[in-house]
Specification:
Blueprint (H helix, E strand, L loop, with lengths): L2 H6 L2 H8 L4 H10 L3 H7 L5 H14 L3 H7 L5 H12 L21 H7 L1 E7 L2 E6 L2 H12 L5 E3 L2 H11 L1 H15 L11 H53 L8 H5 L10 E6 L7 H9 L8 E8 L3 H9 L6 E6 L7 H8 L7 E4 L10 H11 L4
Parallel strand pairs: 2-3, 4-5, 4-7, 5-6
Antiparallel strand pairs: 1-2
Length: about 375
């Protein structure tokens, strides 16, 4: 049999799993599945003591066991995908070796693919086969979009996001560069001056040039005094701000962690951490160590290291660190402007957290910073 025929054999079984006949059968089938942790031990991915530690963390953190194992570096995301497929009897796809058919993806459906963690893969036996990191979670959404249940194979979350980044690079770049200008032009730096401001500046420049031959000394003196007054005003404002900050009592948000702590780890939200990087290979090991020392459940950290395509040195340095797979590498295509805001905008659609923080490569986050932020947000209002 050729490769395509071999791949088609499990298709009917996978399709049948997509819409089991009744809920009682679903509960029975799930209870019959082998336990994920025992499968990992049997596959040689874990020792018994490592599994016991992971199960304890799963209980304390309130996360899926696979997520706990990946975030602590015990296994890779691809290992979790293979175990998931074996547990449920669903084929597993390595998107690096078997990329999707690009003609099947809907160019307007990027938000759907990101939200549901899925992507059309290939045609098999007259059906479009999807891949998803969690087929159980994506099944109903795919059926609603396509109008019927379709076969869904398993892939790793890491491979899926890399594939989406490459396949929709042009769309993501366009959004990162121009989306703010389209939605909120008054907040965008793409248009620095309004037409009225341009006209006023032109009139002022003409008058200034016309007066310069006759009043050069007076104009230069006035300009010097004006710049001096601006400097004094800015310095005064800064010192007043420092004084007010030191003299004011701490707000309830600032003391929230000290007074009330944070919710239990099981109730903590997922926190996205973005770090845009450009020519930062030397400081990357220090940064990675600081991020790993953050006092927060690792399974609830969604860390995005954002690289520029024109800076392969930093990307290779990051790969050499062999970080756990919850450190996601996002490569921004080499298009102008090459700025940190654009890099963060490019990565933003992939963020999974309820909260988000952006660090520079030179930052050394305080280990408790994210817990303090959650405590402050909990005390604050809806804004």
């Amino acid at each position: 049999m050729d490769r395509e025929t071999i791949e088609t054999l499990p298709l009917l079984e996978a399709r049948n799993k997509a819409f089991p006949p009744n809920r009682a059968n679903v509960r029975r089938k799930r209870s019959d599945r082998p336990l994920f942790g025992e499968m990992a031990v049997a596959a040689g991915l874990l020792h018994e003591d490592m599994l016991a530690t992971a199960l304890d963390r799963q209980k304390r953190w309130g996360s899926l066991l696979g997520t706990v194992l990946v975030s602590t570096g015990a296994v890779r995301a691809a290992d979790v995908a293979r175990l998931y497929g074996r547990q449920r009897g669903v084929p597993v796809v390595d998107l690096e070796r078997e990329p999707p058919d690009p003609s099947l993806a809907d160019p307007t459906a990027l938000n759907f693919y990101l939200r549901e963690g899925c992507l059309p893969w290939r045609r098999r036996a007259g059906e479009t086969v999807y891949v998803a990191a969690d087929p159980d979670a994506a099944r109903e959404a795919i059926a609603a979009r396509e109008g019927r249940h379709l076969p869904i194979f398993v892939t790793s979350q890491r491979d899926l996001r890399r594939t989406l980044t490459r396949g929709f690079a042009a769309t993501l770049t366009d959004r990162a560069t121009f989306d703010l200008m389209r939605r909120m032009p008054e907040s965008s730096a793409a248009r620095r001056l309004t037409p009225a401001q341009v006209r006023m500046l032109a009139v002022f420049s003409i008058l200034l040039l016309a007066a310069l031959p006759f009043l050069a000394s007076s104009i230069l003196t006035a300009a010097n005094i004006g710049l001096g007054l601006i400097f004094i005003a800015l310095a005064t404002l800064r010192y007043i701000s420092i004084f007010v900050g030191l003299a004011s009592p701490p707000s309830k948000e600032e003391t929230a962690y000290a007074n009330y702590g944070t919710p239990p780890d099981t109730e903590l939200p997922v926190y996205t951490v973005m770090v845009p990087l450009f020519r930062e290979a030397r400081v990357l090991p220090i940064l990675a160590r600081a991020l790993r020392e953050i006092d927060y459940p690792a399974s609830k950290l969604d860390i995005k290291l954002i690289f520029e395509e024109s800076d392969p040195e930093t990307l290779e340095a990051a790969k050499a660190l062999r970080l756990p797979d919850h450190f996601e590498f996002i490569v921004v295509p080499d298009n102008l402007p090459r700025t940190k805001p654009k890099a963060c905008n490019f990565a933003l659609p992939f963020a999974r957290g309820d909260y988000l923080v952006i660090y520079d490569a030179e930052d050394s986050p305080e280990p408790l910073q994210l817990r303090k932020a959650v405590a402050a947000f909990t005390m604050g209002d809806g804004k």
